[in-house]
Design brief:
Helix content: 10-25%
Radius of gyration: 19 Å
CATH class: Alpha Beta
Order of helices and strands: HEEEEHEHEHHEEEEEEHEEHEEE
Number of helices: 7
Bound molecules: zinc ion
């Protein structure tokens, strides 16, 4: 099947596209997932690569004739799966070991071409299930990763995209600020279902510090383009407010199943409330045992 049948692109700002799968049945089984292509005079920047279904690189080449660089907002499998169609990628240094981790706590597992193909078929809309071709899929293998950190710049020529460290959902989560278009690409760093407490987890206190850092740039963007949601920039302030309540012990402590186990959420906001007038847009799960950061000390190896 042609790659332009597997993906859909929507131009959200000049020379900037939100890309998603057109053949996947989003709903209970699979969350909506987005990646972004920012075309520039020097090169084009691909922000995240989703699950790795189909050849994302070939699809992006229908939108830009510039060379492409890939940056991952964090190491989770629904953000790095399509990296393997590209030659190399950039990721925050704190997520580097987790990118290559194996086992039940890793967000990413090396997968064969057949495994990825079978996964894609299992989530495809009925009319697409028999049309997928195994050659559209690529095995996940070790690849070159360059590390980035807070303050680094992707210079596309006509616009600069700045890396902002917002660790929490993963230790190396980042947002990418596009001042020219007054938007931030946020991956999963703050949204209506911000999951804290995964592998290498970060305390609520540290996450709050990172949100306060992100909030210093707040006057420079109006909207956040995330990996699963598009939200107004006030999501950052709401995150700060809720972290404060969690640390004070005055949050709602709602128990809700996620990934087959009960998790504690700061408020009762659910996906169903999202978009209702007056409804907040931020919620987060957290580990009640991991509220405060540990005192900094040199690592002993
Ligand atoms: Zn994630």
């Amino acid at each position: 099947m042609a790659n332009n049948e597997l993906f859909t692109a929507t131009e959200i700002c000049p020379r900037t596209w939100q890309i998603t799968y057109s053949f996947v049945e989003f709903g209970q089984k699979v969350n909506p997932v987005y990646c972004y292509l920012l075309d520039g005079d020097n090169y084009a920047l691909v922000i995240d690569t989703m699950y790795g279904y189909g050849n994302l690189r070939a699809f992006c080449e229908t939108l830009t004739d510039k060379p492409m660089k890939v940056v991952n907002t964090h190491f989770h499998g629904d953000h790095i799966g399509g990296n393997y169609h590209f030659d190399e990628a950039y990721i925050h240094w704190r997520d580097l070991p987790l990118f290559y981790a194996k086992g039940p706590n890793a967000g990413h597992f090396p997968r064969t071409q057949e495994e990825i193909y079978e996964r894609a078929k299992s989530v495809a809309l009925p009319e697409y299930a028999d049309k997928l071709c195994i050659n559209d899929f690529k095995a996940q293998e070790p690849m070159i990763l360059y590390t980035i950190e807070d303050g680094d710049i992707f210079d596309l020529g006509d616009r600069q995209i700045e890396v902002i460290y917002v660790g929490g959902h993963s230790p190396g989560c980042i947002a990418l600020l596009d001042r020219k278009n007054r938007c931030a690409f946020t991956g999963d760093c703050c949204n209506s279902n911000t999951l804290l407490g995964g592998p290498g987890g970060i305390s609520v206190e540290e996450y709050l510090e990172n949100l306060l850092h992100f909030n210093q740039f707040r006057s420079e963007f109006d909207i956040t383009y995330g990996g699963h949601q598009v939200l107004p920039a006030c999501v950052v302030e709401q995150g700060i407010e809720l972290c404060g309540r969690i640390l004070a012990g005055t949050d709602e402590k709602v128990q809700r199943p996620m990934f087959g186990r009960m998790m504690t959420y700061g408020t009762s906001l659910s996906r169903e409330d999202f978009g209702k007038p007056g409804a907040k847009v931020f919620n987060m799960s957290y580990d009640p045992e991991k509220l405060l950061k540990k005192p900094a000390k040199p690592q002993v190896i």
